[in-house]
Amino acid sequence: MTVADAAAATIAAVSHAASSGGDTHAMVSKIILQLLLAFAAAKITGYIFEKINQPVVIGELLAGVIMGPYVLNVLQLNDPSMHLTFEVIAEVAVILLLFSIGLETKLSDMAKVGLKAFWVALAGVVLPFALGFFYMKITNHNDIMSMFMGAIMVATSVGITARLLKDLDFMSEEVSRIVIGAAVIDDILGLIVLSVVSGLAEKNSISLAAIAVTIAVIVIFLLIFTLGGVHFNKKYGYRIGKLKARNAPLIIGSLICFTYAVVAVQIGLAAIVGAFMAGVVMAERESEFEVKEKLEILEDVLVVFFFVIMGAKVNITAFTDPSILFAGLIITVLAFAGKLFGCALPVAGMGIKKASFIGMAMVPRGEVGIIIAAFALSKGIIDDAFYGIAILMVLLTTLIPPFILGPMIKSIKRGRQNS
Amino acid sequence: MTVADAAAATIAAVSHAASSGGDTHAMVSKIILQLLLAFAAAKITGYIFEKINQPVVIGELLAGVIMGPYVLNVLQLNDPSMHLTFEVIAEVAVILLLFSIGLETKLSDMAKVGLKAFWVALAGVVLPFALGFFYMKITNHNDIMSMFMGAIMVATSVGITARLLKDLDFMSEEVSRIVIGAAVIDDILGLIVLSVVSGLAEKNSISLAAIAVTIAVIVIFLLIFTLGGVHFNKKYGYRIGKLKARNAPLIIGSLICFTYAVVAVQIGLAAIVGAFMAGVVMAERESEFEVKEKLEILEDVLVVFFFVIMGAKVNITAFTDPSILFAGLIITVLAFAGKLFGCALPVAGMGIKKASFIGMAMVPRGEVGIIIAAFALSKGIIDDAFYGIAILMVLLTTLIPPFILGPMIKSIKRGRQNS
């Protein structure tokens, strides 16, 4: 036996031994390797984007597209055995992101912009839905398909928008608070639209009583968990500071965050809505506990996984078909127009600069749109081409606004200095 | 339709809509709920254990046992669709733990205790292996089964031991450095034993050349990656501090940690050996970059999952069979004796207190033992009863030493004050 033979035999034996926990151990190593490569790619691309003054989040999304299953297939998102693990990591990441956004939002601040945010959200839901629905009707699709296209165009991606405002250091502005408030409200409205549309698709009928109850459940959740939580924190929260365990406020904050997220899911809301509410509750004592600073460390390591995985889901090969590309571009234009006008109109009184900033910041669609499209696809209501159109719309509404929002923010800041 | 009917219909419709991403979305929520409950249970139990002056890690392991599939089945570790996700989380957690242990270990300190640690590790591997092997031979088991019992008894759990020393605030002591050094070396020796034993089990023969090559590969890895890394960090590491990205040292540290872990797995070592080496490399500039402080925040949130999942793997129902219980207790006594005498003997010159502390600190077995037992079980070399014995040994060697090490540390500290 030569040394080379021995080496080969040993490496085989040793790697065999290393995978001794059965397939599981080898799979764990494989997933960790993929996560490492995706993390490295996203961090490097993000760093380059920061250097060239572009939003970091776009760099991370693009890194995801390239590392994902449709280009390099380094991040094997479509492997059925690994799929769930990646989804859990992405979900935990976006929950932490919305929690940290909530931490920067005091209830009193929310109350100030609440009514404006509500009208922005409502008009920003109605107009895109109407545009999507009527475009589909005009192009000879049936009612159900048309309604689903409308529903897909409804919900702004709070995650992407919030991250963008954070990266651009613009979170504390009134316009940003309106955007975040409206994005949270429109996520809730989007879920109501989804439950109505899917009810119609299954039963071809929907009861007004059922819709009323859905809305009542959501309002009760918000009242009890947010107002109750804030009250409780104001009165008893100081006790957390007295616990001697290391990082107690962060640990208790995380517990509250995930508890709210889980409860939100149980009553049919998105986990991120609950996480945001938990952040609002904890915000009352933020200056005291410094949870935000500590959470930033968790965020810098974890949140990137949400964006890289979102990017990896984009199937860019679908756009080689010119008819899909054409329909996708029209839907994208309608999706831009719907939010831009819908969301700017209710706040037109703030001036053209601020109103159009709010409209543009509400343009990015994301997870909720993809969830609705995937649901319709799995039910056979829409086909692959239609799904491709929806993904293209989500992709373009996410990729383009960051390039426009940067200059818009500069213009708002400049306007302030001149006055 | 009554209001109650409407409510029921709506809740069904809404929860249906919420799970619209297909089964995946519902599964993600289920896993997050389980992780939340396990996290809460572990943190509460850990806090209680701290209050009653017992090691926190034991509280977390016990929380795992109770939440795990064999008692409450809240943490559904044995569900095939969720299994992998939990394993990935546990692995990431223990990688971060070993990285942070490495960060507290400078190469120069390691060099001081290196030779002592090597002899402690070697004797602590040979004696338990011999005791396990001969007990099995005496009780009429065949060679292969006897060898596997020896192999299962070999490797100290670095994770549990290190966490214990950290909790007891004793990490900077010479004895602790010897323990950590020896535990890392014995993990490497354990993996060599495993590759030899599994080679024998498969081929009924093993070449000395192959063993030599295995050892050579490991030595080369350690030399290049540790010495080379330390040299590189000393010379060029200051550049990391100049990067403007937030938390750059932590992010680059994490990248190096997981890269080392992945390379270690590729050449047949455990991921945690690589993670420890990465920590040693980064330790050179620890005072400058404060990676350790930031990592502590990640640790406080993530590392608990390793221990709660390790606890959840313990099938306590296996011990209701008196013959398994009896054999398990004998193997446990041998496992204690093997490390206690084997590891204390090479350092007998340090005095009885310190030598016996080192021996006792090396007693806990863990992941490697369980991996070897699971491997042998899957190959049909050992049966369920034998597996139960191995698990009981791992459980008792993990649960008992913490209660003895606390008083031992106090005694060492008292002895120092008196002199």
Tell me what you see in this structure.
The structure is a homodimer. By secondary structure, chain A is mainly α. Chain A has 2 domains: about 5-85, no CATH class; about 95-305 and about 320-419, Na+/H+ antiporter like fold. Helices cover about 80% and strands about 0% of the residues of chain A. Chain A contains 19 helices and no strands. In chain A, helix 15 (about 320-345) crosses helix 16. The model of chain A is unreliable at about 1-20 (pLDDT under 50).
Low-confidence segments of chain A: 1-21
Q: What is the CATH topology assignment of the largest domain in chain A? A: Na+/H+ antiporter like fold
The strand count of chain A comes to 0
Tally of contiguous helical segments of chain A: 19
Main β-sheet of chain A: number of strands, strand sense, barrel status?
none
Strand content of chain A: under 5%
Sketch the topology of chain A as an H/E string, one letter per element: HHHHHHHHHHHHHHHHHHH
How far apart the termini of chain A lie comes to: 85 Å
Whole-angstrom Rg of chain A: 23 Å
